[in-house]
Amino acid sequence: MDPSSGNKIGNSVSLPGSLYMAVSQIRFNDRLLVGSYGSVYCYDTSNYNLLWTNELSGCGYHFGVSLSLLYEYGTALIVGFHGHVVSINPNSGKTNWTLSLPGSGYGFVSVVIRKNTIIAVSKGYLYAIDASGSILLKDGLSGLGYGDAIIGSKDGEDQNSSNLIFARLSAREHRSH
Predict the structure, then answer these.
(1) Residues 6+ apart with CB under 8 A from 91
(2) Out of the domains of life, which is the source (predicted)?
(3) How far, in Å, CA of 57 to CA of 105, rounded?
(4) CA nearest neighbour of 101 among 81, 116, 115
């Protein structure tokens, strides 16, 4: 909507089963990739026709989906949700691999990508995962790890691992009731 006129300036689509759930979206070439209520949808941006749906099967009930695109190569859509990280081919919608994060249970998973490494945060753990879905590092963060993963680099350059300054967690204290 144009805030000054109230006129519609874009397109909208209804996501099956999404009800009132939050929606994550990213653009990939001429495609719009949308995640909501445990599924990922791919739309053609020229006409907003649905090209494919991936229901992220085999991972149990999922409440929310967080999306991040492996942008260096444009070959994988990385989805973090419900204690899992999933790699999806953004052209076909087929699942490349699924990884259940040990120790995370069925928690929300925040994912970011640095070079060819996926950084995931869930339920007090930080994980480094390679592009094939193998865990390179699992680090328990006592009382932390319930927020978003953020990556920073020296002088805005992200050329090699020595430039990584921090993987900061927007953490909140976990209190049991």
Answers:
(1) none
(2) Eukaryota
(3) 17
(4) 81
Choose the weakest-confidence range: 46-55, 108-117, 140-149: 140-149
Burial (CB count within 10 angstroms: exposed 0-12, middle 13-18, buried 19+), residue 160: exposed
Amino acid identity of 10? G
Q: Is the pTM of this model over 0.85?
A: no
Q: Which structural domains are found in the chain, ordered by start?
A: 24-144 (2.40.128.630)
CA distance 126 to 120: 6
Report phi then psi at 170, rounded to 5.
Answer: -80, 85
What number of other Cβ atoms are within 10 A of residue 156's Cβ?
A: 7
Q: Is the dihedral of CA 106, 109, 114, 115 positive or negative?
A: positive
pLDDT score of 159 more than 50: no
CA–CA distance, 118 with 65 (Å, rounded to integer): 16
Main-chain dihedrals φ then ψ at residue 41, nearest 5 degrees: -120, 145
